Amino acid sequence: MPSGQSHPPSTTTTNNHHPPSTTTTNNNQHPHHHPTFPPPESESETTWVWAQIKAEARRDAESEPALATHLYSTILSHPSLDRSLSFHLANKLSSSTLLSTLLYDLFLLSFSSDPSLLSSAVADLLAVRHRDPACVSFSHCLLNYKGFLACQAQRVAHRLWLQSRRPMALALHSRIADVFAVDIHPAARIGKGVLFDHATGLVVGETAVIGNNVSILHHVTLGGTGKVGGDRHPKIGDGVLIGAGATVLGNVKIGEGAKIGAGSLVLIDVPPRTTAVGNPARLIGGKERPARHEDVPDVCGFGVKILEEFER
């Protein structure tokens, strides 16, 4: 395991077992009373989120002593979010021949050299905490959400790909697929504020692009048709929601704020703020004048709701 993490940061004391004043002692019963966005007066999103994560870890270590060592080693012993995340990813993705110490140095160097990686991770934490009702805390996302962890590791693999370190990028890609059951090519481009909900079976091809504030559920494929080479994978616009089991094939464009129904097979462009469902997918309202929705969708009840709309 990576060295140098035997003592907690100086800002954390051994008797500081209480979360910040923005949370209450009964929040285990009401997890959504926790704030999901930093207040306007906060110093920075990263500082605020990291403070929340540490407070949640202290609370959980007190309520579940069996987890205290795990929480201390993964969160409380680290002075910053990038070190904690690097440590956690390194231990998750290590193998007998790909050592955690090597991966820790690789992740930490990447986060230190490219500030956009950490800012994207923070945006993802905020997105998951705000959009997913099942996410009870930021620390829960950091520790246990494999979609979040796979996304952070893929961004590092993508950076390695751009640096022409392709053998290492592909080795990391392979470990991500083995450990998290998420297969995202290291050349694929992913925006920030992304939610990969459940994430099992997610496949994203080499030339795919995923925009900002996108939500994608499990068993989604962004693939090629197998008929062409080159730029052959989907381009997903900002604010798009793709339901579970959907397949989007070819170099098609899914417009900003569009929705793709669960189980749909999409082979066509989908205009912004419209909904496509079915196999093969059709636009609700018809191709000539598709019905438009004005709000970027949330995850809850999405598949059932739009299928009901389609069947009317």
From TrEMBL:
It is an enzyme of class 2 (transferase). GO terms for cellular component: cytoplasm. SMART domains: SATase_N. Pathway: Amino-acid biosynthesis; L-cysteine biosynthesis; L-cysteine from L-serine: step 1/2. Residues 49-153 form the Serine acetyltransferase N-terminal domain. GO terms for biological process: cysteine biosynthetic process from serine. One of its GO terms (molecular function) is serine O-acetyltransferase activity. This is serine O-acetyltransferase. It comes from Acorus calamus (Sweet flag). The gene is SAT5.
